[in-house]
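User: Show me a protein chain along with its predicted structure.
Assistant: Here is one chain, sequence first, then structure tokens.
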Amino acid sequence: MNGIGRRLRPVAKVLPEDGRAHNRSLTLQQLFHAGPVSRADLARTTGLTRVTISDLVASLMSEGLVAEMGVRSEGRVGKPATLVGIRPDAFEIVAVDLTDDASMHGAVLDVSGAVVHRRSTALGGRTGDDAVDVLLDLCRELVALATCPVLGVGVGSPGVIDADGTVVEAPNRGWYDVPLAKQLSAALDLPVHVANDANVAVLGEYTYGGASGSGLLVLTVGQGVGAGIVLDGALVQGHGHAAGEIGHVTAVDERDDAEGTPFGSAELCACGRRGCLETLLSVPALRRRVAGLDRSAADAALAAVGRRLGIVLAPVASALNLFEVVLVGPPDLLDGPLRDAALRTIQERTMPVIGSELRLRMTALGEDGALSGAAVLVLSGQLGVS
């Protein structure tokens, strides 16, 4: 796939034998985030020589990725500098979000990450190979809508997914050891990148949501609960590619039952164990918890879940020295008493050097965060840009 797990954004020169691909990514990375700049500015910001930059820019122009975009408008002594930038019509990206159990959602995005076309299709309860066929049809429809060359297809899926885009297990889809990226790529004749939906969400926040990559955890709350983590600019996958499966950490156990917590008995989770965080924090669980309550009682119920979330997150924040936790899910459930209680609990249970600086906020990307992240899969895999 795209070698995710390496540092996502190249920041310095490497040895000559590895240099050209790295320097190409370094140049594209600068153009992607800074916009059109002069060749001299590129040399300064990347640390590469002007000769190397000229060679790289010429190569990228021949590929149709980069173009000259006029001269610098401000007055300077000497000949005005010619600006180069990524062509806005160089490519489009197909992105698909599979987090919804009922429907698959997809879009065509432009170079800037803006949605150009949007399509959804109902799953109708289909799983296994039938669900793969639904996904393939949606991808074909989106590719046909593109008006520029398609750089690739990015897919964010629930489940454990390895670096090659094989779905090791996604029980709700009936997928076990499904080489999804390989199958879709062969059928579409395009590069295809597949990753866990929480990992996709954290990539979207990192690239388009203004989040720091020093210590970032994105918590996705939907039918289930998952987390994507970026540390020191690298996506964390972990042994077995299952990093971030925080939804199946025990949050309520027998001692809680005996002590009479607000949660009653530890509920049975879909994973077969009792008291997982997912049994408290998933959207269906939260909706059930506040159903029929007045505003004050609902706020107290959400705050109780937030405190339990803070108890789960505190050791994670300490172990990883997180700077930012971003919540992705319904704001009416997450943004308020639940978020406030979670942050307060983390701060109570961590050293001041960690807890006092930690930010816990809602996503800046809204409902399109998963699609933006799926697009970043393609940008990172094909261009080394994130």
